[in-house]
Design goal:
Length: 338
């Protein structure tokens, strides 16, 4: 009887384990909700268009990618729990921590560093007959895509370096980046912000020239980083590491010169912009640098946050390392090296 009881218990235990294993294997993939703002400076919506890159997609996670017009709207969605990962410019990181009280915000990855090595840096254009030095912009109209944005901070800091302060010495108007060329050429603004693909517009290059770059103002900077909330990193960690692994594999594929023509075709198909418009610059030094480890330059990011405070957009300095968690990306990198 004792032997029979033991066998019965053993069979019951095996059955329980089998049910548990079956349940685990049939578990639904974890939904990861990401935001994006611009392609091709950001690659999230197209990163997995090439078959074979996303080895975990559909297995451990699914991906829902939503476009936002700016960091501010992405930040709102992140704060409300509508996003798992948001693309934030460095001012938005500071605003999230200080203004929104998001002490649980964590920087998890890099998206768009500016001015690295000989790669592209955001340009600030004037007309060909315009100022030759920043201090000659006194009394002029400067266009920004939004006050307190990344490029707005760079513009204001450059003006300060040349003795000009807003609103004492110049006027600022706001306009979407695609419309700024018209403002400059119609003489409604004396300086505009431009970045790929707008900065390679033939009409703009014929009638205007860069006066300075974001690198001239800020040095190497973090134009955009990925941010998430600490509780999401905890509850979705395994799926997020799988996603980061796939993303890193995608970065490697897009960075490979042998894949450039196919990569341009993918970008062209997604944006509905002719491939010829990308041929001279995309995935070259005329394009933004893309860090192959997807890890942000924290020293640069700290300088950027400090500059935001210096200009009065933040009331106090923020130690950005306190709000950073790169352990998930570290885990993903280790897998690729195995």
């Amino acid at each position: 009887m004792k032997i029979n009881s033991f066998i019965a218990c053993l069979l019951a235990a095996i059955a329980t384990l089998a049910v548990g294993a079956s349940s685990a294997s049939s578990a639904e993939p974890v939904k990861i909700r990401t935001g994006w703002i611009n392609v091709p400076s950001g690659l999230v919506p197209v990163i997995f268009k090439k078959d074979g890159i996303a080895r975990h997609l559909g297995r451990s996670y699914t991906l829902e990618s939503t476009r936002f017009i700016a960091s501010t709207t992405a930040l709102t969605a992140l704060a409300n729990g509508e996003l798992d990962i948001a693309v934030l410019g460095f001012p938005a990181v500071g605003f999230a921590i200080e203004n929104a009280g998001m002490e649980d915000l964590r920087i998890v990855a890099d998206e768009t560093p500016d001015g690295v090595k000989d790669h592209y840096s955001v340009q600030f254009f004037v007309r060909n007959d315009g100022p030759t030095k920043p201090n000659e912009l006194k009394g002029k109209v400067l266009a920004t895509n939004g006050q307190g944005s990344t490029v707005d901070i760079a513009m204001r800091l450059m003006m300060r370096k040349h003795g000009l302060e807003y609103p004492r010495d110049y006027t600022i108007i706001e306009a979407p980046l695609p419309t700024q060329k018209g403002l400059l050429l119609d003489k409604k603004a004396d300086l505009i912000i431009s970045l790929p693909p707008f900065c390679y517009d033939p009409e703009l290059l014929k009638n205007a020239r860069p006066l300075f770059t974001q690198k001239d103002s800020l040095g190497i900077s973090e134009l955009a980083v990925w941010a998430a909330k600490a509780d999401v990193l905890k509850t979705k960690r395994a799926a997020l590491v799988d996603f980061f692994e796939d993303y890193l594999r995608g970065l490697q594929w897009y960075a490979d010169p042998t894949n450039r023509q196919e990569a341009i075709r993918i970008i062209s198909d997604f944006t509905k912009v002719p491939a010829a418009n990308f041929e001279s610059w995309l995935f070259t030094e005329k394009d933004f640098y893309r860090e192959p480890t997807a890890k942000p330059d924290l020293a640069a990011l700290q300088r950027n946050i400090d500059a935001t405070a210096e200009l009065g957009f933040l009331k106090k300095k923020i130690d950005i390392r306190k709000y950073t968690d790169l352990t998930l990306m570290d885990d993903a990198l280790k897998r690729l090296k195995q």
